[in-house]
Design a protein that fits this description.
about 375 residues, alpha+beta, Hypothetical protein af1432, five-stranded antiparallel β-sheet, 15 helices, 9 strands, about 10% strand, globular
Amino acid sequence: MKKIVPADIVLGQPLPFSIFDENGRLLLRRGVVVTMPDQVDRLIARNAQRDEPRTPHEAVATAASPQTPPPAEEEQSTFEQLGGLILNLKHVIGTALKNPEQIDVAARIGKIAAAVQELCEQDLDSALAAPSLDHHNPYIVVHQMMGAVLTELIARRKGLDPAQRLSLVCAALTRDFGQIRIQAELDGHPGPLPDALRLRLQQHPNESVALLEAAGVADPIWLQAVRGHHERFNGSGYPAGIRQELIAPGARILAVADIYGAMVKPRPYRAKAHFPQSALKDIYLKKDAEIDGEIAHALINQIGLFPPGTLVRLKCGEIAVFKKPTVKAEEATVYSIYGKNGMALSEPIRRETAQAGYEIVGLMPYAECRSAAITIKRVWAK
C-alpha cells in the first residue's frame, strides 16, 4: 500500500488501482473514473492509500471493458466525513501560514465551515463525537474543529440565521491562527507558562485577525468573533480586557465553545484533560460573571451531561461509550467497547444502564481506551 499523491489520479481516466482509507476500508474500486479535482483533494486530505496498479495491459482492458460500470465512491459516515474535514483544515492552516499566496483562505475556510454546518444538520451526535475522540491529529487543529461544531449548535439553538452561523463557524475554525506559530513552545511547557510566553499567547486573537485580514477576510462578524473570543464579562480576559457590553455577540459564543473544548482535550502544558461533566460545571459557575449565561445554558442543554463520545465503566466491568447526548446516567443507552475481560470488542454492544449489572460506576479517560478506537467509531455506524 502506498499513500496517494495528486499525480496518481488522472481526471477522466479509470483508476488502475483501488483506494483505501487509513484503516483499510475501501473508498474507490479499481476502474472508477474520478472527474472532479475536489475528489482528489478529499482523498489526499484523508491520507488515502492505494494498492499496486495492474499491468498496462490489464488497465487498458479495464478501460475498454463493456461490463457493468464500476460503483461510485462509497458513502462515508458523518463521523468519517468530519475526520476528513479535520485533515483538510490541517492542510489549509499549514499552507496559509507557510505559503499564503498559494491559497484562498476565505474560500477554503468557508467551504469547510459550510460542510460542518451540513454535517451538524445531518448527524449532530457524530459531529460532536468525532473531534472529541480524535487524539492523533494535532491538538490545535482538532480544537478548532470542536469549537466550530459547538459554535454551530449553540448559534442554531439561539436562532441565528444560516449566514450568521456560517461567519461564526469560519471564526471558530480560524480563531487560533495567531497561536499556531508558538504552539510548539506552548507544548514544551508542562507547567505554568513563562511570563513572556504567556504575554505572547494573550496577543494571539489580534495576531489571528491580522493574518486573516492579510489573507483577504473582511467579514466583520468573523473578525469580531475571533478578536473577542478570550474576552470576559468582568474584564479579566484578553487581549483588550473589555467588559460585557463591548464583547461582540459572536465572540461570546466562541468563548463558551473554546472553554469547553480546551478543558476536555489534553494539552502538554495543562495538567490533564477534564471529563465533560467537570468542564460543564466550570462553565456553569462562570455564567454571567465571566461568560454569557444564556449561551452557557444553550451549550449544556444541547450536549447534555454525557455528550456523545463520553466513556464510562459499567458495573459488570465493561467499558462503554455514549452515542447520543444524555442527562440521566441511570436511564441511558450506551455501547460497550471493552468486554469484562478488558479486551476490546470487535463490534460494540448496546447496553441499557437501567438493567442490573449495566449501571454506570465511573468515567473513563480516552487515553486508557485507545486500543478500541476502531470499535468506538463503529458505534456511529449503527
